[in-house]
Amino acid sequence: MCGRLRVVTWVVRHENFGDDVLTGRERCGASRVSGGPGGAQGALSDRHGGSILGSVTSDLGGPDLTGDRIEVRSSGPLDGTLVVPGAKNSVLKLMAAALLCDGTTRLTNVPRIADVDIMGDLLAHIGLRVSRPSPDRVELTNDGNITPEAPYRLVERIRASINVLGPLLGRYGRVVLSMPGGDDFGSRPIDMHIEGLRMMGAEFKFAHGELTAAADRLRGARIVFDYPSVGATENIVMAAVTAEGDTVIDGAAREPEVVDLCRLLVSMGGDISGIGTAELRIRGVGRDDLRPAEHHTVSDRIQAATYIASVAVSGGQLTMLDARADDMEMFVRRCRDMGIDISAGTAMLGDREVPSMSVTSTGRLRAVDVQTLPYPGVATDYKPLIVTMLSVADGVGVVTENLYPGRFRYVEELMRLGADITTTGHHAAVRGRPRLSGAPVRAHDIRAGAAMVVAGLAAEGTTTITGVHHIDRGYDDLTGRLAGVGADIVRRHG
Length: 494
Ligand code: EPU
Prior knowledge:
- The protein is an alpha/beta fold.
- It contains 16 helices and 29 strands.
- Helix 3 packs parallel to helix 9 (256-267).
């Protein structure tokens, strides 16, 4: 496999490893881009004020603003039904797409997570009116009163703020964007976003931590990604829908959340073909030709995987409504290899027929080897869950991380719970134990935090998780949903 040049460089420099998976890119030598928590109902935005959709409880990598903790104990078999909420990594981009047309974009199946609040604040600062008429709906009204500037105090809190770059540049011709920060699991550059937009005629300047981009009118271009970046694909698509002429993205990301964004853009009047494939073709329409639409956010495959992992280590049976097995095929395959019984079907949720999944586990798992890859491979965001499941599986499993070289920090926390894990470079060898042993642990990022909750379900005694604000960024009532199916879990307010 041809991995990322930047990843290779990082790994060679800092991790002293040099083997199979990531070496290809060095030999390829190609450039990556080339020519060829719950919102207050009815809250209204104010342009420069506080949180728009509810109280913001999140701060990327910062201090724990809530002081809350989650206490979880091994619970015996889980049993019941839960509804999987909408996807964080979709809804944040859908919200940004409201910049592309005048009028009110209406989003449903919006998860109650802190990142939605933060994105709402950012878009309100830029000039949208943002409201939450009911808990799972967000409305974003664009009156054309836009100031295309995204300041550091908002951008630093959420990586997805980079997704305002494409729509603002495409429609308004100018953006001043503070550079987004990294994550606890490593540096996350935006060079592919910039190169792609440059090829469409944008000019960039960088000074004092701010990126200034300008383009009288973006022009369609053929953009070849040598790695299917999710965020860069989304930014280029949003820039291209109102650019002059045709844009082709060769090597586009195919994640279900990218597909969801493309579907919204098509409902708004965008002309996009090849949706869900590695070659996206976008025929630009006039800058003011898109119209607002109503859109149902795709359900969250990572939250669904978290509930699968929970029942996997606890044993029992779970029915998940609005869970899309097709969007998580490789993860489901690996879970079946581990001995988890998973079937897919449909069910009624109110008056809607929705995809559903039924998951059964004895609580005993078999070890498997897994590597993370772009979609349709096993997503990096599942990895902390997989490592946690392997910690209590029979045998040894090797997990290989191909996207974020630094994404193993939660391993130290799992080891505090008695997990037997050895990391070498981007590999983790996990030797399963019959049970973990509860202890205080910290959530270092969203997915690592959810993995600590799953680990607590597999541990004797009490596991107390701090850094809960990270979990709040991406999980809609994880504690309540797990308690609802029989888990011994409680959130204590700090
Ligand atoms: N990359 C570059 N240059 C770029 C863009 C990306 O080097 O210009 C590198 C990144 O540093 C990383 C890799 O490419 O090593 C993957 O980046 P990608 O652009 O695909 O990811 P992203 O858009 O930044 C989204 C999700 C992540 C998820 C990844 C991969 C959102 C808001 N975030 O990030 O989700 O891990 O795709 O699937 O959509 C999470 O939800 O916890 C999370 C981190």
